[in-house]
Design goal:
Elements (H helix, E strand, L loop, with lengths): L9 H10 L9 H30 L4 H31 L6 H27 L5 H24 L6 E3 L3 H13 L4 H16 L3 E3 L4 H21 L5 H46 L2
Antiparallel strand pairs: 1-2
Helix pairs in contact: 2-3, 2-4, 3-4, 3-6, 3-8, 4-5, 4-6, 5-7, 6-7, 6-9, 8-9
């Protein structure tokens, strides 16, 4: 088709515009995986609302439906963690767009900030011994911890291969594990706040690369299987769920201990080295 004013081809101009599109507006494969992460986080909120909260408020709550919806919401968070793990691996192997880092932070905020915080909030509304207002405060603490964690990640440069503070996917999975373990309300609240503190702490966590990335992927897939067994009331499903949640919490508690011990040992070694250098400098 020809423009009567300019006598130029509209189709040709459209093709030229597409070719001249800035790189910042083109999505890479890694960006597509990141958007999958955000979608999973949103759907986790959806299933938490429609399958747990609304039936509870309307008085039509059934244990089976709530169990299936809770399992689906957590499985979606696990799937978001897989997308988050894979988009980093793909970005290092293939081209990543200039807006990849921003997309990653925004998606993580939805899947590992909003979704688990909302899960905690709903838990405070449906649990028998929970207090809604206190649970709301705990949910806000989780959300703000993830916001601060992601903001600091964008501003602070860490040494290669390490994170400062518990990574938000690991923190989100720990928070929902604490809720699913169905401990008494006060221990649950303290454990959730402790996890939020670890996310904004200076404890160093290794980045999931190589063997560690494969191990993490295997653990996430195993957790999905445990949740599915629990959701469909399979024999031993409750035991599997409690075992998986307990292992997640144990890992969240022990990794900071190992990191702290390694940091103390490094400090001692540096101090000994300085003393040796000082003694050597004093010798004639």
């Amino acid at each position: 088709m020809i423009d009567p004013d300019t006598q130029a081809g509209w189709v040709a101009e459209a093709e030229d515009d597409a070719e001249d599109m800035p790189l910042s507006l083109r999505l890479s494969i890694a960006d597509t995986l990141t958007l999958g992460n955000a979608t999973c986080g949103f759907m986790a909120v959806y299933f938490t609302t429609t399958g747990i909260l609304i039936p509870h408020l309307t008085g039509s709550n059934e244990s089976g439906m709530a169990r299936n919806s809770a399992a689906t919401a957590v499985i979606l968070m696990l799937l978001a963690a897989i997308f988050d793990l894979c988009d980093g691996l793909v970005a290092r192997k293939l081209r990543s767009s200039p807006m990849g880092a921003e997309l990653d932070n925004l998606s993580d905020l939805i899947s590992f900030g909003l979704a688990p915080a909302y899960f905690v909030l709903v838990y405070g509304m449906v649990a028998d011994d929970a207090q809604q207002k206190v649970s709301a405060v705990a949910a806000i603490v989780v959300l703000l911890a993830v916001v601060l964690r992601l903001a600091r990640f964008s501003c602070v440069t860490m040494k290669d291969g390490m994170f400062q503070g518990m990574p938000s996917p690991f923190g989100a999975l720990t928070v929902v594990s604490i809720v699913l373990l169905e401990l008494p309300f006060i221990p649950t609240l303290l454990a959730i706040i402790g996890t939020a503190w670890l996310m904004v702490s200076r404890v160093e966590y290794p980045k999931p690369r190589g063997v560690l990335a494969v191990a993490m992927l295997g653990w996430i897939v195993s957790a999905m299987g445990m949740l599915a067994a629990w959701a469909f009331d399979a024999p031993g499903g409750q035991v599997l769920l409690q075992t998986g949640c307990a292992l997640q919490i144990v890992m969240a508690a022990t990794i900071p201990l190992f990191a702290t011990a390694r940091r103390v040992n490094t400090f001692r070694d540096n101090r000994r080295e300085h003393r040796r250098e000082a003694r050597a400098a004093q010798l004639p």
